[in-house]
Amino acid sequence: MKYQLNINYQLFPTTDSLNEEEKGLLEKALSVCVDAYAPYSKFKVGASVLLGNGQVIIGSNQENIAYPSGLCAERVALFHCGSNYPNETVEVLCIVAKGNLLPVDRLLSPCGGCRQVMVEVEERQKQPFKVIIVSQDGRVLIFERAKDLLPFVFGSL
Ligand code: THU
Cα of 147 to ligand 1 centre, how many Å? Predict the structure, then answer.
């Protein structure tokens, strides 16, 4: 049998498409991105999370000379939320990056490990959250649920 999956997402040419709350999240992600610890890849990533109580949690990638010991910005932010605000829902995750590891005109997208973690946050809170990704050229990708970024996620088939 053949099956087909449709993935819904929005793509906008500029950040003008974001509302005021989303622009605030973007500002916070950009501000934490500057302080990422990325001496090896020189690719700095910033993530901001809007919680159900209105608080914004931020995280940046943290590298290590033993490469696999480092952690992506999205997981730094989401694990901070899970540790410190276990009863708050994640409503929105905003991701930005700066660096030459990827051509600046290429769309940014979170790694597979972060997507796996994002989906489990949705499952844990029994509620999807919006993912806003702003690429270095200013284009904006929006997913209404993290699961749309990883449909065949490990553990939920
Ligand atoms: N990185 C993130 O922070 N998030 C992702 O989704 C992909 C990659 C980090 C990991 C590493 O510090 C650097 O970007 C280069 O891969």
Answer: 19
Distances from the Cα of 141 to the Cα of 6, 17, 41, 134, 155, angstroms: 16, 10, 24, 6, 26
CATH number at residue 104: 3.40.140.10
Catalytic option among 22, 63, 74, 88:
74
The C-alpha atoms of residue 84 and residue 87 are separated, in whole angstroms, by 9
Report the alpha-carbon distance of residue 151 to residue 5 in Å, rounded. Answer: 8
Q: Is 64 in the pocket of ligand 1 (CB under 6 A)?
A: no
Domain housing 77: 10-149
Is pLDDT above 80 for 153? Answer: yes
118-146 tens-digit pLDDT: 999 999 999 999 999 999 999 999 999 99
pTM of the model: 0.97
Q: Does residue 5 sit within a domain?
A: no
Catalytic residue status for 88: no
Q: Which secondary-structure segment (H or E) carries 115?
A: helix 112-125
Number of domains the chain is built from: 1
Residue 144 resides in a domain? yes
Q: Judge whether 157 lies within some domain.
A: no
Q: What distance in angstroms lies between residue 45's CA and the mean position of ligand 1's atoms?
A: 6
Retrieve residue 2's tokens: 């053949």
